[in-house]
Amino acid sequence: MRPPETPETDASKARAAVQPVAPDTAPAVASEAGERLAGALRVRRFTPAERWVHRTTALLMGVCVLTAGCLYLPQLAELVGRRELVVRLHEWSGLLLPVPVLAGLVSRAFRADLRLLNRFGPHDRVWLRSALRRDARPESRPAGKFNAGQKTYAAWIAGAVLVMVGTGLLMWFTHLAPLVWRTSATFGHDWLALTIGLVLAGHIGMALARPESRRGLRTGSVSREWAEREHPLWRP
To answer: By the 8 A CB rule, do 174 and 182 touch?
Structure first.
């Protein structure tokens, strides 16, 4: 049977509860408390696998765009030289573009995000109408983890990459198709490349204007205040 507590034991417990932290351990306690507070103010947005898929795809896309510029702009071609090497870099970086996404399918979180990107809901139509009216108020642009603009961009760039790979293969392996097909492939490849360059410039510009979005892709987490303001329908 547990003995009854006496006033002395009650006083001992009270003294233990209010016992000050030793001076040598105070910085560690304060640091731990600060880390807990910072963790409570941030939410996880992307896993390491998702961030590496984005970085690798961005690197390959950057190589494609830069080498394309060197192949089509005389000023860059003269500056860089070594056209044969530039051609090979362009071909292989373009051929490898789908690989990071395919490798990312191993990640459950990446597959879940792909499903979210592939689904449009009523709130996405509201977001698009507000964007067309240039209404930038957060309350007029409801969004889940991804807003309608991000979904539209992801769908467009995925289709564009597939078309670029297909037309590029027809241009690379000339025996795969008759001349009229190769001519059409060259025409479509060149003009779609120009369109991709313009869209990527807009994408990069929007990213530069949104530091918290960049921080989410760099570190994997975003501030809770930003998430609640920009993606109010997201429940991390």
So the answer is: yes
Helix (H, G, I), strand (E, B) or coil at 223: strand
Inter-residue contact 207 to 213 (CB < 8 Å):
yes
For residue 3, the tally of other CB atoms under 10 A from its CB is 6
Beta bridge partners of 43: 222
Tell me the DSSP string of 203-219: HHHHHHT-HHHHHHHHH
Q: In angstroms, how far apart are the furthest CA atoms of the chain?
A: 99
H or E element that contains 235: none
Q: How far apart are CA 116 and CA 110, in angstroms?
A: 10
Instruction: Tell me which amino acid residue 204 is.
Output: I
Name the residue among 88, 98, 113, 91 with its Cα closest to residue 57: 98
CA dihedral 192, 193, 197, 198 (to 10 degrees): -30
Angle CA 213–94–191, to nearest 5: 85
Burial of 188 (0-12, 13-18, 19+ CB in 10 A): middle
**Secondary element (H or E) of residue 160:** helix 148-172
Mind listing the pLDDT tens digit for each residue in 16-72? 444 454 555 545 444 554 445 445 689 999 999 999 999 999 999 999 999 998 888
pTM, 2 dp: 0.77
Handedness of CA 50, 54, 60, 63 (dihedral sign): negative
